[in-house]
Design goal:
The structure is a homodimer. In chain A, about 55% of the residues lie in helices and about 20% in strands. Chain A starts with a strand and ends in a 5-residue tail after the last helix. Chain A has a single domain, classed as Winged helix-like DNA-binding domain superfamily/Winged helix DNA-binding domain (Arc Repressor Mutant, subunit A, Orthogonal Bundle). The first copy, chain A, is elongated and about 60 Å long. Chain A has four helices and four strands, in the order ββαααββα. By secondary structure, the first copy, chain A, is of the alpha+beta class. In chain A, a hairpin with a 5-residue loop joins strand 3 and strand 4. Chains A and B meet through strand 1 and helix 4 of A and strand 1 and helix 4 of B. Strand 1 of chain A pairs antiparallel with strand 1 of chain B. Chain A binds a DNA duplex through helix 2, helix 3, strand 3 and strand 4.
DNA sequence: AGGCGTTATGATCATTCATCATAACGACAA
DNA sequence: TTGTCGTTATGATGAATGATCATAACGCCT
């Protein structure tokens, strides 16, 4: 019996960032490509690309700088904007994670 | 640009309580029937009943005491167990709501 | 010139969720 | 006693979302 949560940010009712999306961006930054990030997380490349594209259009900002062709076939890396978003969101999520663990233990006691 | 969240509790990877489900239980308690609660929330009766049934089977406890037929056709009310769960969950959710508003304001500043 | 791994995007499939429809029930009134 | 009404309970269907498969384009390197 464990508490779970999700956290996301909306603009005009549309999700532009979430825990899962942040993890995706982090994986892109770490591996240098969308395809490697997708494989690492365990989702199809198509899904990863769609989510990133969705975030970009909703935010109206470029989050990932991509490049096709080349010695390793291409790649992707975060824009400075994306890196900043990600850093702030991670801090936020980290604080929340601690709070939830504490508050659940303090407030929630099962009846038998 | 606003933060949103969901909060739920799982047992063996299955959801047994969530913000939305808590609202449903609250509506049942307030209106005295599942159908009235469903109409109030704006979902079909079938959906409401399914969710409640799902919670009960997953928890292995009866949450809603129902009655068919009778002067008003029947009705439903929360069991003491459900009332206790609901009360604790609501307190938890309320604390979380305040924390998120504060933490978001403190941590999240947009680039331009 | 050809191969390779990547981005980009169309098309299809599956799974979940919402909705419609129907049966059973029991108090009350006629 | 019989019919009506609003509820619970459950089967069956439809819609929408998300995951997955398949294909084209690109550019460096051998």
């Amino acid at each position: 019996m464990q508490p779970h949560y999700n956290l996301w940010i909306e603009i005009d009712g549309q999700v532009v960032l979430s825990l899962w999306r942040a993890e995706l961006l982090r994986a892109v930054a770490r591996h240098g490509s969308i395809s490697a990030a997708a494989e690492r997380i365990g989702i199809p490349y198509r899904t990863a690309w769609q989510k990133i594209h969705e975030m970009e259009t909703r935010l109206g900002r470029k989050l990932v700088e991509t490049q096709t062709g080349g010695s390793h076939g291409g790649g992707a890396r975060l824009t400075p904007t994306a890196a900043l978003y990600l850093e702030q969101f991670d801090r936020f999520a980290h604080d929340l994670d601690r709070f939830i663990a504490e508050s659940f233990a303090a407030n929630f006691h099962l009846p038998d």
